[in-house]
Amino acid sequence: MGEFTGKVVLITGASSGIGAETALHFAAEGAGLALVGRDEGRLEKTAQDCLAKGLAKDKVLTIKADMCVEDDVKRIMESTITHFGKLDVLVNNAGGASPCSLTSENLMENYDRDVRLNVRSVIQLTNLATPHLIASKGNVVNVSSVCGIRVMANMLPYNMAKAAVDQLTRCAALELASKGVRVNAVNPGTIMTPIQFMYGHSDEQIRERASKTHPMGRAGETNEVAPAIKFLASNAASFITGETLSIDGGRHVACAR
Ligand SMILES: NC(=O)c1ccc[n+]([C@@H]2O[C@H](COP(=O)([O-])OP(=O)(O)OC[C@H]3O[C@@H](n4cnc5c(N)ncnc54)[C@H](OP(=O)(O)O)[C@@H]3O)[C@@H](O)[C@H]2O)c1
């Protein structure tokens, strides 16, 4: 018996990085899992890793879906409820960034893509999940970013999108508090996942840069984010809502000199 035995947790972006690690942490606590991603092979790998934590086969559901396609997002919620009959925790983790500035030629295209993936899909899925979360007195954890609080150069649409996720977290928390549903977010700094390699930098280069930009002198790892997500979703956080929790080695409090 684990802390989440009997609970159902839906995690988007579970095929990689922070989402995959978060799935393992909930699996270790006995949660039933609905795991979402586009890459079937990597999604199946996460599912197998969760089963290896001791979950019964019917406690892990994989859903191949593109968060940018409305019908796919609807199918995520329908499949989860058809399979498990309820939802206790929604982890809105899928996300991504398009390197882009105000003067980039493809600004509007990148803006539309980043907002659709990081904000619109989160609003849509949260909306669909809300009746089930009210029924279960459940909660939501959004995966935002230090970019929601501070501005990272050449990431204009992503910075804006993650700031919107932070404000959505507060809006939803306020709206759902009286219905017994909590809504929180985590704001990671540089965490060593595939998303970090989009500029073509090596592992060593990313770690070297992070050692200068993060006051704690290093990048973070997925197993430093997943426990915070699990904490916010747990009864230990029963009086916490509307919180955006930085997990960034102090990056958000730093100021360049
Ligand atoms: N790593 C960091 O430094 C960092 C820092 C701050 C915030 N974050 C946030 O953390 C979250 C997880 O990112 P990560 O670092 O774990 O990166 P990652 O390893 O690249 O994982 C991204 C996940 O999002 C999914 N995804 C992306 N686009 C999707 C789409 N259109 N439809 C469905 N799923 C989609 C991917 O699934 P498929 O590939 O299977 O489609 C993958 O599972 C993101 O919201 C990101 O913005 C990361």
List keywords for this structure.
single chain, binds NADP nicotinamide-adenine-dinucleotide phosphate, 257 residues, NAD(P)-bd_dom_sf, globular, 42% helix, seven-stranded parallel sheet, Rossmann fold, alpha/beta
What order do the helices and strands come in, and which of them pair?
Blueprint: E1 8-12, H1 17-28, E2 32-37, H2 40-51, E3 60-64, H3 70-84, E4 89-92, H4 107-136, E5 139-143, H5 156-176, E6 182-188, H6 203-213, H7 226-233, E7 244-247
Parallel strand pairs: 1-2, 1-4, 2-3, 4-5, 5-6, 6-7
Helix pairs in contact: 1-2, 1-7, 3-4, 4-5
Bound molecules: NADP nicotinamide-adenine-dinucleotide phosphate.
Describe the structure.
The chain has a single domain, classed as NAD(P)-binding Rossmann-like Domain (Rossmann fold), CATH 3.40.50. Helix content is 42%, strand content 14%. The protein contains seven helices and seven strands. The protein has helices at residues 17-28, 40-51, 70-84, 107-136, 156-176, 203-213, 226-233, and strands at 8-12, 32-37, 60-64, 89-92, 139-143, 182-188, 244-247. Strand 1 (8-12), helix 1 and strand 2 (32-37) form a beta-alpha-beta unit. The model has no long low-confidence stretch (mean pLDDT 97). Bound molecules: NADP nicotinamide-adenine-dinucleotide phosphate (NAP). InterPro entries: NAD(P)-bd_dom_sf, Sc_DH/Rdtase_CS, SDR_fam.
